[in-house]
Amino acid sequence: MVNSEELSESEQTRSFFLSARFAGLCGLIGPLIAFIGIAVAIVLAPWFNWFDHALSDLGHPWMLGGSNGIPGINASAPLFNTSLVIAGLFTLVLTIWLIRYQYFERSAIGLIAAILLTVAQFFLIAIGIFHEGFGTIHFAVSVGFFVTLLFAGMIYGIRLMQEKPTQIFGVLAFVLALISAIIWVAYYTIPLPFTGQAIPEIISAVTAFIWIFPLCIRLVLKME
To answer: DSSP code of 161?
Structure first.
C-alpha cells in the first residue's frame, strides 16, 4: 500500500517531467547532442570538406572512406545518424510542451510556430533514419527540416514582437531566420566560393539554436 509521502514524491516526479523547466532542459540538450555528434563525426571523417560536402555526407554509410577516394565504410555514419535521432527526440519534448502551452495560454500564431518546430523535429529524426543512402527520401526530409525550421523562426519571431517584454527576442528570431533564408536563396541563385551544402546547413542550424536558446533559458528559470 502506497503511503501519502510516496504518492507525493511520485506526483512531484510526474510534475517535473511535465514542467516548463524539463521542457527547457530538453530543448537545450537536443541541439547540443546534434552539434557534438556532428563535430565528432567530422573528426572521424578526414575526407570531409566544408566547401565541397553536405553534412548529410557524414551519415552516408558508404561514403568515400578517405582523401584518396577509395570507397569504404564511413566510420562517422552511425554516430552522425544516431545523434540526429536522439537530438530530435529530446527537442520534441520542448516542442510538444510548447504546442500545449501556446494553444491554451497564448495565441494562434504561437501555436503555428510550435507546430512547425515540432514537424521540423520529426524531419530531423527522419534525416537520421533515412540517411543519404536512401536518395530521394533523404533529400525530401532534409528540405522539409530546413524549410519548417526557417518558417518556425520567422513566425515565432512575429509572435514575440507582439509583446513589449519579448520584442527584442522576437526581432532576434525573425532576423536570424531571415539570414538563413537569404543564405539558402543565395546558394541556389548566385555563384559562391563553395559548392557543398554544409555551410548553409550549419548556419541554419546554429541560427535556429540561437533563437531557441533564450526561450529554453526562460523555461528553465521559470520565467514563462
So the answer is: T
Q: For the chain, how far is it from start to end, CA to CA, in angstroms?
A: 38
Answer yes or no: are the C-beta atoms of 92 and 135 closer than 8 Å.
Answer: no
d(CA 42, CA 40): 5
Q: Tens digit of pLDDT per residue, the chain (224 long)?
A: 445 454 465 565 557 667 889 999 999 999 999 999 999 999 998 889 999 999 999 999 876 544 444 556 788 999 999 999 999 999 999 999 999 877 666 688 889 999 999 999 999 999 999 999 899 999 999 999 999 999 999 999 999 998 888 899 999 999 999 999 999 999 999 888 888 899 999 999 999 999 999 999 999 997 65
As given in the structure block, the three cell numbers for residue 208 are 535556429
Domain spans, the chain = 20-220
Q: Are 23 and 93 in contact (CB under 8 A)?
A: yes
Cβ distance 73 to 63 under 8 Å? no
Question: E strand or H helix at 49, and its extent?
Answer: none
DSSP one-letter code for 71? B
Are 75 and 44 a contacting pair, CB within 8 Å?
A: yes
Which residues, including other chains, have CB under 8 Å from residue 45's CB and lie 6 or more apart? 57, 58, 63, 74, 75, 76
